[in-house]
Amino acid sequence: MSTKKGLTALDLSIGAIFVALMAIGANITSIAPFMVIGGVPITLQTFFALLAGLMLGSRLGMISMLVYMLLGLVGAPIFSQFSGGPSTLLAPTFGFILSYPIIAFIIGKIAEKNRKLPVYLGASLLGLILNYAIGANWMYLAYQVWFEAPEGLTYALVWIWLAVPLPKDIILAIVGGIFAHRLEKSFLARSQFRAQTNINNS
Fold it and tell me: Each residue of 114-158: pLDDT tens digit?
């Protein structure tokens, strides 16, 4: 039986799967380099971070995203374009990585309290909004304070850059909400994993 203080082998296994999915989603651009616009890689990281919150719950979802972030910061090449290391912390796009544990925790909390489809969809879109808000503000701050800014950079221009991948991310957020909800109803609700998750959250 799991407790609030510990993680079971099942927790660790499922969390590790999501760390791997994040690494894969981050490096889609390695086979499609044209998917980098305005310095922002168009990846599937946000999609998997949203799924982590909805499927794993607030606690394990956040932990899996923290592990992904920390592994990358200590040097594992699992960020976009197979990057990693402490210097990534100063990159203009690090705000998006920083947002993943936050959004996984928040939308996980929402899904834990209500397993209905509209809630999953709303939580997923809220997570996307937070991802973009944190990412855009970090990017603008980085360019203004410690990173050489492109000529003519404005806060509005940052959001114009982000408008390019936004339609894709909205679609994926909706798909993620539907997928997570269907998996919940068809399998997770009756699984050992969900039973122990409910114990952890009780």
Answer: 999 999 999 999 999 999 999 999 999 999 999 888 888 899 999
CATH number of the domain to which 186 belongs:
1.10.1760.20
Residue 83 carries which DSSP code? B
Q: How far, in whole angstroms, is CA 43 from its chain's centroid?
A: 11
Is residue 2, in this structure, part of any structural domain at all?
Answer: no
Which segment of 24-33, 123-132, 164-173 scores lowest on mean pLDDT? 24-33
Q: What angle do CA 63, 79, 112 make, to 5 degrees?
A: 30
Number of CB atoms found within 10 A of residue 188's CB: 20
Alpha-helical regions (H) of 27-116: 45-51, 57-73, 94-113
Structural domains in the chain (count): 1
Is the distance from CB of 41 to CB of 35 less than 8 angstroms? yes
Name the pTM for this structure.
Answer: 0.86
